[in-house]
Amino acid sequence: MSNRFIALEYREYCHDGRETCGAFVDNLARDLARDPLLNHNLSNSRQTDGTANDMKFPSTSTILLTLGGLLGLLSGAAGDETNPANVTAFPGAEGYGAVTPGGRGGEVIAVTNTNGSGPGSLQAACNAQGPRIVVFKVSGTIDGDVKIKNDFITIAGQTAPGDGITIKGNLAIDANDVVIRYIRVRTDHDGDALGGRYRKNIIVDHVSASWSSDEVFSLYHNENVTIQWCMITEACAKADGSHRFGGIWGNQHATYHHNLIAHNDSRNPRWASGCGYNDYRNNLLYNWGYQSCYGGEAHQKGDRRKPPIEFSAINMIANYYKPGPATRSDVKDCIASPSSRGDGDYGDWHVADNYVDGFPEVTADNWSGVKGKSFTKLASPWQALPIHQQSAQAAYTTVLEQSGCSLPKRDSIDTRIIEEVRNGTATHGNNGIITTPEDVGGWPELRSAEAPLDSDGDGMPDDWETEFGLDANQAEDNSSDKDGDGFTNVEEYLNGTDPTEFIDYTKSENNINSLENSDAK
Asked: Which ranges are annotated Acidic residues under compositional bias (predicted)?
């Protein structure tokens, strides 16, 4: 039974109201239960060479978890005017978090100052109830932690006039249906710079995170997640000199692609225990210290999820590994070091098409770069949602060109790190591994600029509305969809697209980030 068939059946049942969706779940689960392939349990499907068969139908519990993930992906896409089935959060959104609606169709809230809280602040926008799209009338550094507390939010950092937004603190995701784009999180104290657990339908795009003394970017034990085009860099040390970790990743149905991970000692990333289905492609890792990535045990002790996720299945495909000055000689060729806590705790891994700079033998045989024996080889990858995949070498170039908070413009921190990766150098700390933000000069000053005139406060500047035949004094037209392609008018502005031109964004060839492929940069 294909995902497309499930989606069509789901929309048929749910078109007239979500109260009928329970019948769909019951019927589909009953159909799956009749399928003899359900008896194909992964634990009994080892091949004689120690590998596992394709994981199409691992077990009854996994089938139900997969079904739950699919329904989570589709729950906001049952087919109304502002959210037709399969339209992504924005053009260029890919993977398992791609179809969250975020704040689509909701209130537009403008951030007008860089205060840590209070009226006009980013925190106030995050505290608001209901679907909301957050735009910025100011650039600069927000001094303080920010917590997303309520569901259905889109944070559009690309709208900041001037040099963009940096959060000097932690950004916590404690809500469902979250879209975060084009901001920086450079913390000044303990705790993950960016993190969240036990939530669903999240996409983080073009975010730069750094300087945490816990993990820089830890998003795990969630459902339906995409982390794409981000920079996770320069982890700092705890008071005792320990840590400097990139992050913990691992979510039930998750995609990670075209991210740059650089200048972290370890956890690049650490795969969470019991992390479910995770697909990691076209990422670039540079200058890890004593560990690239590890983890991926099958079981999480004290798992709070209901039902618990009792397996880890990890694709690591077409990524680029570039050791740097801080990379210890015994781990320069290490793609991953899978972990377990004993028999029955092995995760399932498929590792292929990765490029390890300076180690042609590992590039030719990726399994020689997977250390230890505490894992099960998958003969082929689990069948993840596709992305616009490149070769590892092509992704290296594209990631350096486009990753991180590149709009409105890259700051001096990201610009320096990109050049260090490109040149194979490190200019601060102990060969690029730092202890505090002061080692690299701290937070750069961000200039603001005058925001474009928006008379009706609908998130669309007057000049843009006039250009495309909208009413600059009619705020309600921001949630309309002038061209009927699934993106509201204000989203067309945020996405750098034409609100008068219908484009079928459900076609892969049209699902391209216009902001990174235009004169916007």
From this structure: 453-468
At CA 110, angle to CA 107 and CA 112, rounded to 5?
160
User: pLDDT value at position 85?
Assistant: 54
CB proximity list for 11: less than 8 A, separation 6 or greater: 74, 77, 78, 79, 85
Phi, psi of 197 (to 5 degrees): -140, 155
Please give the model's pTM, rounded to 2 decimal places.
0.87
pLDDT averaged over the chain?
87
> b vs e for 263-291, b when ≥16 Cβ sit within 10 Å of the residue's Cβ?
bbbbbbbbbbbbbbbbbbbbbbbbbbbeb
Q: Phi and psi for 394 in degrees, rounded to 5?
A: -65, -40
Gyration radius (Cα) of the chain, Å: 22
Active site residues: 267
Mind listing the pLDDT tens digit for each residue in 461-490? 999 999 999 999 999 999 999 999 999 999
Instruction: State how far the Cα of 495 lies from the Cα of 69, in Å rounded to an integer.
Output: 27
Can you give the pLDDT at residue 239? 78
pLDDT digits (tens, 9 = 90+) for 357-392: 999 999 999 999 999 999 999 999 999 999 999 999
Token couple for 327: 């990379």
Render 352-376 in DSSP notation, one character per residue.
ES-EETT-HHHHH-GGGGB-SS-EE
Cα(510)–Cα(508) distance, integer angstroms? 5
d(CA 436, CA 86): 43
Structural domains present in the chain = 3-74 (no CATH), 107-440 (2.160.20.10)
